[in-house]
Amino acid sequence: MDKLYSLTAAQMKDLLDRKEVTSVEITKSVIDRIEKTDGEIQAYTSYNFEQALQQAAAADEKRAKGETVGELAGIPVAVKDNMCTKNLRTTAGSKMLGNFVPPYNATVVEKLLADGAVIIGKTTMDEFAMGSSGENSAFQVARNPWDTTRVPGGSSSGSAATVAASQVPLALGSDTGGSIRQPACLTGIVGMKPTYGAVSRYGLIAYGSSLDQIGPMARTVDDTAMLFKAICGKDKMDATSKDYTYTPYGDSVKGMKLGLPKEYFGEGISAEVKERIYQAVEVLKAQGAEIVEVSLPSTDYALSAYYIIACAEASSNLGRYDGVKYGFTGSDRSSLENLYISSRSEGFGEEVQRRILLGTYVLSSGFYDAYYKKAKVLQKVIAKEFDDALKLCDAIITPLNPTTAFKIGEKSNDPVAMWAGDICTVTLNIAGLPGINVPCGFDSNNMPVGFQVLGRKFSESTLLTIAKCYENTVGGFAVKEF
Amino acid sequence: MNSNYEIVVGLEVHAELSTETKIFCGCKNEFGAEVNTNVCPVCMGLPGTLPVLNEQVVEYAIKMGHAMNCTINGTTKHDRKNYFYPDLPKSYQISQFDIPLCENGYLDVLVGDEVKRIGVTRIHIEEDAGKLIHDDSLGGSLADYNRCGVPLIEIVSEPDIRSADEAKAYLDTIHTTLLYLGISDAKMQEGSVRCDVNVSVRPAGSTEFGTRVEMKNVNSFSAAHRAINYEAARQIKVLEEGGEIVQETRRWDDVKGVNVLLRSKEDAQDYRYFPDPDLLTFVVSDEKIAEIKASIPELPVAKTMRYMSEYKLSRADSELLALNKNTAAFFEAVIATGKCEPKSVSNWILGDIYKVLNERKCEITDLALTPANLAEMISLIEKKTISNAAGKTVLEVILDENKDPNEIVKEKGLAQVSDTGALNAIVEKVLANNEKAVTDFKNGKTNVVGFLVGQCMKESKGKGNPAMLKDMVVAAIEKM
User: Fold this and answer.
1) Do the chains contact at A319 and B91, CB–CB below 8 Å?
2) Are the beta carbons of A56 and A74 closer than 8 angstroms?
């Protein structure tokens, strides 16, 4: 069969169940596709081809014997390089962990393996998940398949790029302030940040622990749901994970109330993006959704609160990379202090150092109350506003990114502009709510536009229902021939 | 010590808790395992790992909180204390900052015959760090992470301690309390109890505190005693010479008996405490807190006081009995039989039995001796069925064998002879064989009667009633 790699996960499952193809055939097709295209896309920091073929053969054997297999059995999945994989290099996109091989699997990886999935490789990312373009990787810049001179977004840049380029049907990303949804938006795929606590963080290399969440990325809503179902649920290794029962989703928005917050449609959002989103809202309205206006007045403060909380936590989380135990060791070993300084100065990239410094500053005595404490108060205010707004509607629709994908290098010298782009995404992480990117057309440069659907805690099935209804109504999402 | 000055001491005691597993992972919590064997990705702080709270730690710490009369905060909150050191693999220690598990308590301690109340500011739970092994032959240091994640409680006292003796009494009381509660091995030599000492001095009668100096590396309670006296003398000397005390941290060198500057206040680290986002607050219900409180046994100082008032024992004997949980329980079990006097029980335990425990280096519970058998043995003496000497013979048997003392007395024929006829024969024989002593007695050296009674006891093979024999010896000589 031709182009097996380009199938969706649901199509692969169907063929596998009907024994029309084997997982080894699919996996070989995917490997071949990656080998032919990844020189340009640069979606992977490590390939896992040998292991992947063994996993595929194992899944085939189980199916052949008629044993019960998981939904993802035999289906290739890419994993962001900040999720620990036993005996497979896990770099978090950093020189600091360039040679780090974990002795254990992240819970999500364990779950994928238990389901029979094929782990195809580890995807390129902004260093320690800090970035919105993928340009902060210590190794390479993943490309946007729609225009390889443009960024795919970040920090889950490789996961978005590999799915958008039809190298694999599924990828795991992580989202601390939009790192799943924003690259999904910029590459025209679906990406969902689940409710904080819906998916175990055990084995996810921490950036901002109270905000980090792992989630699925795919080219269709069904595939997104399929991957989410495999990874969600309480984990005894993660005290912040919650009991979570996956509930099936529908495809009708009839009678649903969808909120539009005026604060998300202000000056900062490009006219073209706004226009596409209003069109998408019209589509949902035509399907029977009722549109209501809601207000989230503290939205403007969310960005500050986000960067203070995330950086504060990062400054503590990244302290362990000191050149002593594993990973990169600096060149000056003349004293303990010099070892620390050289390891961290040489091992971390500029953006990571910027955030560690900022986080250290906001936690230091004398500044804690003015910054960190205030940000935590704001976090409560923002969460409360979402709660109130979500009492008036079933879900809220906003733009996902102010613009479409920009050119590589365009913003890399302006960190503030780069941070400002996160305005639509960070609010969810601050409030711990789930959100999903739904592709909704293209701008004049033929770059994808997406809208965000967000909802109450643990309302993933509502979000998937709305996304599915839109997907069906518009006849599916465009896939880049690459 | 210069009596123009008063010493003010506050203590921070760290005690390792003897839970089965570590505080945030499933690794075994044991001392002395081979280097880096009791470790896992979590306590090694590997990227991506997360802590999960061991609830037994909370329970143990609450026990100590109750024992120190603290208010218990049922909602635990954990904070990160950030600093860089190679023995701390995460670069932060999970501790408690603004809301400790227990606070506002006190501990009554005995200093001489006085009860002194020492305020307890707080008790919080935290994880221990690893150990660095410095070895010049390797040209550097090695890290052993076995101790990472071993649960600790830190007990912070108010600056209520006024002398090295009070500090020692406070530390000793904490030590016995930990053992009584069964929450710590409390072995100083294994480092399972450690303390930091804060010392200041002020003119006698002053109500304001002087500038305090913190001392680290105080590795035993007796070292604490020496360190406090040294530091107080040092500060008084500085003040007497017109100098000023500077707030600083000093390192105690117990071998040399001196301390040296470790860091000044300006170099104090900013630990950037903030709530640990990986741990949700853990709530202990009021019922559970009450349940733990109900499980707290009577503690050593209270026992000591009770033994003194209820049993009229001396302070020293009471404290010795109360010091060891097993000994105290045994003592009380013997008393509970109602067969014998507390004073005799105390004498037997602290005398012959203690000697055996010391020789065998064991606990009273390791012996076959039962409270019932000891009570019976003592009551036989009190009823004059056997002599004290015969009691020792019985004890030798019942130490290692659960056997009715009455049977032993029967088998060994240890019953005291109180039959006048039989005793008369013995007295006559002894007096006939000891003419010199009889003459001495007649010449006024009446203390030889002890020797004569001893000879009679020997002749009776320890079975004679010594009181009767004494009367009979005196009467016989006087009749001569």
Assistant:
1) yes
2) yes
Cβ(B71)–Cβ(B105) under 8 Å?
yes
Does A117 touch chain B if contact means CB atoms closer than 8 Å?
Answer: no
Q: Is A361 near chain B, with CB under 8 Å?
A: no
For residue range A314-369, what is the model confidence (pLDDT) as tens digits?
999 999 999 999 999 999 999 999 999 999 999 999 999 999 999 999 999 999 99
Residue B403 has what DSSP assignment? -
Query: B420-479 sits in which CATH class?
Result: mainly alpha
For B12-62, write each residue's pLDDT tens digit.
999 999 999 999 999 999 988 999 999 999 999 999 999 999 999 999 999
Distance separating alpha carbons of residues A447 and B414, to the nearest angstrom: 108
Chain A hits for B280, Cβ within 8 Å: 239-240
CB-closest option in B47, B84, B274 to A372? B274
Give the tokens for residue A308: 């203070």
* d(C-alpha B253, C-alpha B55), whole Å: 37
Q: Which helix (H) or strand (E) holds A448?
A: strand A448-455
Asked if residues B102 and B313 have their Cβ atoms less than 8 Å apart, the reply is: no
Question: Is A444 annotated in the active site?
Answer: no
| Spatial separation of the C-alpha atoms in residues A225 and A249, rounded to whole Å | 9
CATH code of the domain in which A363 resides: 3.90.1300.10
Could B280 and A239 be called an inter-chain contact, meaning their C-beta atoms sit closer than 8 Å? yes
Distances (CA, A) of A358 to A313, A347, B275, B311: 10, 18, 18, 67
pLDDT digits (tens, 9 = 90+) for A244-300: 999 999 999 999 999 999 999 988 899 999 999 999 999 999 999 999 999 999 998
Q: pLDDT per residue over A395-427, tens digit each? A: 999 999 999 999 999 987 777 777 778 889 999
Side-chain-side CA neighbours of A80 within 13 Å: the count stands at 34
In B254-294, the DSSP E strands lie at 258-264, 274-275, 282-283
Give me the residue label for tokens 């075994």. Answer: B28
Are β-strands B151-157 and B193-203 bridged in parallel, bridged antiparallel, or unpaired? unpaired
Domain that holds residue A202: 1-482
Q: Name the minimum distance, in Å, from the CA of A363 to any CA of chain B.
A: 5
C-alpha span between A463 and A33 (Å, rounded): 32
Tokens standing for residue A355: 């955030």
- Identify the CA nearest to A140 among candidates A42, A247, A1, A23: A42
Residue pair B133/B118 in contact (Cβ under 8 Å)? The answer is no
Q: Does A375 touch chain B (CB under 8 A)?
A: no
Backbone φ and ψ of A277, nearest 5°:
-70, -40
Residue B94 C-alpha, separation from nearest chain A C-alpha, in angstroms:
11
| A88–chain B Cβ distance below 8 A for any pair | no
Task: Identify residue B202 by its one-letter amino acid code.
Answer: R
What is the count of structural domains for chain A? 1
Please report the ipTM that was assigned to this predicted complex.
Answer: 0.96
Angstrom distance (rounded) from CA B153 to CA B58: 10
Residue with tokens 């009577």: B298
Please answer whether residues B263 and A355 qualify as being in contact, where contact means their C-beta atoms are separated by less than 8 angstroms: no
